[in-house]
């Protein structure tokens, strides 16, 4: 353990400070010639150049719809609402005029001002309908614009492919497999029913 | 008649409030200090300015939801909080962790230790007056590690990555390669950091023999972590409890001699070197296999039916600040009955007054910086 | 500070025409706002996790110095922007409002992070203020927990857009009788007295979260205590206080 | 683990003949809280245990009684957690303080007093740790009534008017009604049942 100037440790009194200045000088010179990850300037010029966008990054949730915004994947089951630790999701199932519940949300709003970006809703959704987005430029002047209604949350599946290609591919595969299994089951039931 | 009345009589002593809004108290921590001229006569810490009632919220959230809240306790390295909490929950429900998951946990926990120690040294140097230069070097390294955290866990600081029985996602190839380059380059950064700081005369003059913490007081006051080992007591929970396959790696536990601020600074540099050794061994021997125990994998999809049996469990790990313990009492429902956190930052402060008595006013900041507290964990 | 639209009186086509002949026409407002916008000094005011992201924004990679805001002034007298970065607890709220009152006009507030905007993940606790805009006016809200450094820079650019839009004639801080002193709440027996400042913030009419969830932390929800007695019942010594 | 706690129980019964102890899973319950200082003193000095490190002091509320749980470790012998528990009735919760023996208990006992209301006798300065002096009630108890932060009460309206802040009529009327009915604006259950 280097202690209070054991004679051999420091040749002359100012040597420690000089070697420190040497380090800062080296860094100063490196910053002009070296590449960013080996000692060069690592600054990201934010508005023009954005930092690397990682696949798994999670900012705020959004809802996915396949063809038209009127038919989202979400069936308003409310599991994400129960699992959200912060309770910032509010789901009301749609009912047609006869009062029979439709498998579609009438109201689905997420409170972006409370959301803590934990991603639990994406994990627990059994219908692959809510995912974490990468878009983070949502600072606003008034608080009420942060309470996002369903119309603002719905984004298309190809936006999901653009933002998170690998995960989107996996979810599509899972959904296609489920549909084939259901189609095979119904066909098998029809054929059984048909005999 | 108390010290204060005595003081008011001859008017020699001044009462000063450090905080809660002070440039160098690492957050909203307040110290009521009685000063006679420049030397400290009495120091009373005042806390609670960041008491975010995490234990009340933990009693009303499911076990899996609490993992998200543990990130916010010691917000400089979220992963060691997850590690300690998941260890306790696994002890409560007796869940085992497969090998690959244990290795991934150790890799992420040691990366978090690198971030914490380099940032702690950077903030300590900020208090010493070398404004922002060493901290900028430390934060440059931290950004590289945060990129790996974001690629693997999804968020830079609030990772929410550990689950009961393993981790949420596997470590894919390119993030593994990124970790390897970080671990390969880190010793060079440490050498540069040491030549910049360790034999710097100003640092030696200001930090040696300041804020000495004797070993017996450290043990009696429950100090743990680098602050305790700087006073020469060999107590590292990774070696004692041998939790999470830590016994497979050989690493030394550096010890200090005098227990002053310089030892506490230098011990963090040595611990970073040990962590790099652990990371090298862990990266070589990373086995294949599943990243979460198949029995608890369905819990990822519906955490609500994780109902541990009635009982209590106390699990602790070696977080970079000291012994971080969780005490869980479960009553069979998805929400715990009681979730108490044994916060190293809070208990390391019980010796703060003993260390600061008789020191100069400028040294209080360094002593506080050398203990390395985070207010999210102190006030919970 | 309200968002006042400032349409400069010069029509743009004439201005572009003149810039071709190297004649630069500008308005006093433009220079005045350009000066204030490009050197807005934040106050060193970190509360919790968002403060670490604010420091990371001030560090080398996401450099806040490119926006002229890298000089974190320690005292409120010399700062003109207060970034409330972190959870404002009820015990800390009087200090935050006092610091805001001590800042010199024109002053701006950025509520950085879910906790400063609305209490965030800890909104249901007994010691957390549900958003700093209950006591002081906030100019830019930045959601996120914690918001990445780029989001803070984006919020700063939004604030700069707001500063650009202000004009000297309509500037609030030059009007006579400007009352910008907000009353400092006191620590009462169960929380802050007053709970919020009605002039600055009114509770919304439809609060789905309260109506739908009530309060996540409900009183007397659990009525049976866990019985930690050992499963194999040891000789039950007569113990009146043992649980049921 | 159980064998470890049994050895502690036998050692203590041998040292203090009349003491009433009970094994609870893998912790040791001291029936009479006043024995705590004797037991802690003995456990700290006796060469067999040398428990010189009190890791954590936890208080918790089990509806019929309040409980304080102590986790001891020995840094010398590197031996695992020895858990002692003490139960006290809710009305006058008094537990002897361990701060004279272990300085690590000082802040934790202040926190337990602050959040649960257990008085630790012999503590050098038992003040609230996290909340402020004028706070009434102990928030982590299971029957704590938390204030509703969205409705103004009579006390707030008076304060606001004293400081020259204009309070809208509806809030003033609600505050007056609340004061008339003598209730406090508390946190309630959800008004609308949650479907789905």
Describe the fold and architecture:
With 195 residues, chain A is an alpha+beta fold. Chain A has six helices and six strands. In chain A, helix 5 crosses helix 6. The longest helix of chain A is centred in the last third of the chain and has 30 residues. Chain B contains 17 helices and eight strands. In chain B, the strands form three sheets. In chain B, strands 1-2-3 form a three-stranded antiparallel sheet. A three-stranded antiparallel sheet of chain B has the order 6-7-8. In chain B, a hairpin with a 2-residue loop joins strand 6 and strand 7. The longest helix of chain B is centred in the first third of the chain and has 30 residues. The mean pLDDT of chain B is 90. Helices cover 27% and strands 7% of the residues of chain C. The termini of chain C are far apart. The C terminus of chain C is likely disordered. Chain D has five helices and seven strands. Chain D has 196 residues and is an alpha/beta fold. Chains in contact: A-B, A-C, A-D, B-C, B-D, C-D. Chains A and C meet through loops of A and helix 5, strand 3, helix 6 and helix 7 of C.
Q: Layout of helices and strands, plus pairs?
A:
The complex is a heterotetramer of chains A (195), B (380), C (244) and D (196).
Chain A: H1 15-33, E1 61-65, H2 79-83, E2 89-95, E3 101-111, H3 120-124, E4 130-132, E5 147-148, H4 150-153, E6 154-156, H5 157-163, H6 165-194
Parallel strand pairs in A: 1-6
Antiparallel strand pairs in A: 1-4, 2-3, 3-5
Chain B: H1 3-10, E1 13-18, E2 30-36, E3 39-46, H2 54-58, H3 63-70, H4 78-93, H5 99-128, H6 133-152, E4 162-163, E5 166-167, H7 173-197, H8 201-207, H9 215-220, H10 226-229, H11 237-240, H12 261-284, H13 298-301, E6 311-319, E7 322-330, E8 338-342, H14 344-347, H15 352-356, H16 361-371, H17 375-379
Antiparallel strand pairs in B: 1-2, 2-3, 4-5, 6-7, 7-8
Helix pairs in contact in B: 3-4, 4-5, 5-6, 5-12, 5-16, 6-7, 7-12, 12-16
Chain D: H1 2-15, E1 21-24, E2 27-30, H2 36-45, E3 53-61, E4 65-74, E5 79-89, E6 94-96, H3 105-116, E7 119-121, H4 154-162, H5 169-181
